[in-house]
């Protein structure tokens, strides 16, 4: 099946626009979460370049963010651009474990190949084996303990649309598959 961002935008709209006043928006360059401003009814999750994987990743950040964080631009997180030192990269990876585990689960529900991202092509080299392992362990935790409610809603909607298995089972996720 073809993976079109317009389908993803509609699925997200059907799941969350009315209940969370949030929409998914195709952006030009950098992704960004923008809480609604005066005179604007909807919060916006802006994903980069119309990429399907960027949309899933930004949705994952939104799904993890609690109510207070969803009132802050980019959920109140710092972002150090590409070119991070090894120490900066380690901090980046700590906050990316849950979003990337969530993205992997959503990718699976959409029948889309997931690729772990360290987002630091021009920075100091840091072996990402430990990061991949942490993402995998978080996926296993979600498989055993269940997903947060909004994540479960969206995952089920993706599985229904893409006709993939509805059950979340650990056997579909393998550490060896992470690139």
UniProtKB/TrEMBL annotation:
Species of origin: Nitrincola nitratireducens
Protein name, per record: Elongation factor P hydroxylase
């Amino acid at each position: 099946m073809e993976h079109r961002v317009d389908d993803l935008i509609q699925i997200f709209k059907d799941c969350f626009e009315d209940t969370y006043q949030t929409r998914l928006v195709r952006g030009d360059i950098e992704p960004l979460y923008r809480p609604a401003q005066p005179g604007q009814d909807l919060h916006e999750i802006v994903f980069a370049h119309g990429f399907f994987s960027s949309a899933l990743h930004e949705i994952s950040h939104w799904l993890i963010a609690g109510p207070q964080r969803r009132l802050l631009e980019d959920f109140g997180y710092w972002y150090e651009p590409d070119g991070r030192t090894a120490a900066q990269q380690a901090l980046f990876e700590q906050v990316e474990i849950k979003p990337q585990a969530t993205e992997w689960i959503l990718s699976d529900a959409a029948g889309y190949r997931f690729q772990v991202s360290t987002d630091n092509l021009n920075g100091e080299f840091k072996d990402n084996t430990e990061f991949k392992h942490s993402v995998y362990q978080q996926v296993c935790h979600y498989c055993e303990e269940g997903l947060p409610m909004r994540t479960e809603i969206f995952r089920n909607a993706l599985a229904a649309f893409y006709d993939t298995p509805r059950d979340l089972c650990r056997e579909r996720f393998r550490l060896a598959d992470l690139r």
